[in-house]
Amino acid sequence: MHFLSERRPDPGLVERAFTLADIPGFLWMPASAKTWAPLPLVLLAHPGGLGPMYPRLLARARATADLGFSAVTIELPSNGDRPRIPAIEQARAAVRETVTAGGLPGDDVIDSFILPLVDLAVPEWQAVLDALLELPEFGGPVGYSGGVIAIGTRLANVESRVVAAGLFAGSYIPRSIVEEARHVTIPLHVLLQWDDEGNDRQRALELFDAFGSAEKTLQANLGGHTGVPSFAGEDAARFFFRHLKYSEA
Amino acid sequence: MHFLSERRPDPGLVERAFTLADIPGFLWMPASAKTWAPLPLVLLAHPGGLGPMYPRLLARARATADLGFSAVTIELPSNGDRPRIPAIEQARAAVRETVTAGGLPGDDVIDSFILPLVDLAVPEWQAVLDALLELPEFGGPVGYSGGVIAIGTRLANVESRVVAAGLFAGSYIPRSIVEEARHVTIPLHVLLQWDDEGNDRQRALELFDAFGSAEKTLQANLGGHTGVPSFAGEDAARFFFRHLKYSEA
């Protein structure tokens, strides 16, 4: 992990830009953090495009720092400034074509778009954990927050350092990911926008039903993809606080 | 409204037992309440049986008082110590027979059980509001909290003094109530127990979809009918606090 710059977007927050191999990312810590007190860490996931996503990621990093936690994000494969992967771009174009024509993409198109992203992104999040958890500032526990929900589902399944996930049911869900969800056992908080234009509500409900976790909450709110109400963010923050705060032991 | 007794279940809470006509009920206020400062009021609804429900109602009254609000509950028609209504009892027996045989009651049975309860209970809640809101201690705004969800839906539709409802999707939902829900416009917070044994998850989701409200949240948690997790109660409390606290004006 190579740190490029450090700044304070506001007095309470330290932001470091970094690259890990060729992956750009941002790391945020509460300005009050002491280096001798390792922090819980939240992986701030997003649908790709660090540039346009930056304002929303910064707001989520602020909310995470308010809990006393650090936060990290990286660019998705084949997004933002990263090199394009032809198979993913072809599948993305097929999705767009269907949506532009007013349709919902079929399972094959969704699989060819989402599954390669999952296969590439999950080891990258794990590499971020490898790099950060050897630094003295970060002790875990680790949470995953946001979309792409298929990536969060796979990561929750294969990465034991992730102990809680707040997922956003706002992207396409391959059928095989519903099967993988049955093996997920960590606590989950799933946000669903009830009127999300481009997504399949029934598949999202099916995914929620499939998760094997003993604690799982679905919070559905009226509104479209970007209309998540502010109180929903606060409820998600409380979920992470319950599961990532240090025990008294 | 005839007050029968007053006691303090704990130092922070005043409880008054009352009857309104022949309907028994309880009224709770924060012990710190001043008579010159009228309080918001939460109608604590329940599935019937004040005796067995009392411990849970008291816990909900405490949580409501912690918000600075008063709370009131009454017995449902044909429940607890109230006289039995033959048509309701026949329908209840038919529901039990179906459930005991391992089935789900059909729409006709549900209608004959729930709709008479709704028709009787809604004017009784309105009579409680008439009686309380003329007292100096209670100024509104008023919220409805809990099951029976069909009663809450009708009341939200016809009673303009109720400005927010936290509903529990834990009882049978007649089809006509789904239609009435389209005319409900107040903010809603709907709790759904994902694995509620006796209820129809799909009908509950259909009801949530039908509500006409511009702000509506569905919170579904893993677990059976009585397994609502404590954090879900806290989220519901925050919903009421947002909508019933006095504005600064």
Automatic annotation (TrEMBL), chains A, B:
What keywords are assigned to this protein?
A: Hydrolase
Checking InterPro entries in the record gives: AB_hydrolase_fold
Q: What is the lineage of its organism?
A: Bacteria, Bacillati, Actinomycetota, Actinomycetes, Mycobacteriales
Organism from which the protein derives = Nocardia yunnanensis
What the entry lists under SUPFAM superfamilies is as follows: alpha/beta-Hydrolases
| Record protein name field | Alpha/beta hydrolase
A molecular-function term among this protein's GO annotations: hydrolase activity
